[in-house]
Design goal:
Number of strands of chain A: 11
Shape of chain B: globular
Structural class of chain A: mainly beta
Number of helices of chain B: 0
Order of helices and strands of chain A: EEEEEEEEEEE
Largest sheet of chain B: 6 strands, mixed
Oligomer: heterodimer
Radius of gyration of chain B: 13 Å
Distance between the termini of chain A: 39 Å
Strand content of chain B: over 45%
Strand content of chain A: over 45%
Number of helices of chain A: 0
Number of strands of chain B: 10
């Protein structure tokens, strides 16, 4: 079965750190650009970061630059998001998503998400 | 950054109604516009990519159109399972921004 499964979310104090993981299965992970997208409670979707197939190209949302680090391990079919200096406004469900391309780029595979709560 | 503006932010409709949701980009994005459906507590699901191409398995009542800055998602005959929130997304440039969402509720 083709799927993405996120883990690593939880409750953390402001200023703390968390590392999210996304395990891919059922497809050739190393062929895909990957992303994290987040959704604050009762809010819309917000793109967070992209990484290309070999990890040499990474881009971030301005508000997370310098605090979040995106990486991947193609041998383990896994994507990671190291989140440091967390703020209350980082509270959200974080989704792992895979890009595909056909005339335009689009997310055609999403995980179920993992909840990150930043609160004292 | 490209801003995506969806309208309306919510609507009430009945089963069988024709529903239209619009999405406007703050600059020309050619045909790099996608639509997602999100049911409560679930992950988003791709409906339409590249403005008008339907994802495999998506019912034919969903269609997309537009180009440049103005885009439309149409549900030709609303079904009970279509009550959800719909998001547009531009993939013309990073950050790949989403619209604010349109919540489709039962009248």
């Amino acid at each position: 079965e083709v799927q993405l499964v996120e883990s690593g979310g939880g409750l953390v104090q402001p200023g703390g750190s968390l590392r999210l993981s996304c395990a891919a299965s059922g497809f050739t992970f190393s062929n895909y650009w990957m992303s994290w997208v987040r959704q604050a409670p009762a809010k819309g979707l917000e793109w967070v970061a992209n990484i290309n197939q070999d990890g040499s190209g990474i881009s971030y949302l301005d508000s997370v630059k310098g605090r979040f680090t995106l990486s991947r391990d193609n041998a383990k079919n896994s994507l990671y998001l190291q989140m440091n200096s967390l703020r209350a406004e980082d509270t959200a469900v974080y989704y792992c998503a895979a890009w595909s391309y056909s005339s335009a780029w689009y997310f055609d595979l999403w995980g179920r998400g993992t909840l990150v709560t930043v609160s004292s | 950054d490209i801003q995506m503006t969806q309208s309306p932010s919510s609507l009430s409709a009945s089963v069988g109604d024709r529903v239209t949701i619009t999405c406007r980009a703050s600059q020309d994005i050619s045909s790099s516009l996608n639509w997602y459906q999100q049911r409560p507590g679930k992950a988003p699901k791709l409906l339409i990519y590249a403005t008008s191409s339907s994802q495999s398995g998506v019912p034919s009542r969903f269609s997309g159109s537009g180009s440049g800055t103005d885009f439309t998602l149409t549900i030709s005959s609303l079904q009970p399972e279509d009550f959800a929130t719909y998001y547009c997304q531009q993939s013309s440039s990073t950050p790949e921004t989403f619209g604010g969402g349109t919540k489709v509720e039962i009248k």
